[in-house]
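Backbone geometry tokens:
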Amino acid sequence: MTSPHPTLGEIVQRSRVVGNVRRDLLLRAVDLARLEAAPVVDAARGLLARYVNLVECGDCGFWDPYEEADVIALVEALKNLPSTREPSDGGPPQSRGERDE
């Protein structure tokens, strides 16, 4: 006579399947979120490029935009995010060090 309760092996196998499904769903959700964020990322990169170019032209005074907390934070936040396009001017360098090379 077979038991109406699953064996330990069956429970482990079922949990692996459920775990794989959950992992796959989470990975798909992350991919979808990245795709939906791409237009915002593109806009932020474009705005950062325009701001840095404006500051570096000297018409507004002279300072290093890469020392500003907001610029530093935005550059860090944008480092590993996907983009749907390249900025027309190539965008600002990722850091002051790249600009000096």
Notes: DSSP finds three helices and no strands in the chain. The CA atoms of residues 92 and 98 lie 10 Å apart. The radius of gyration is 24 Å.
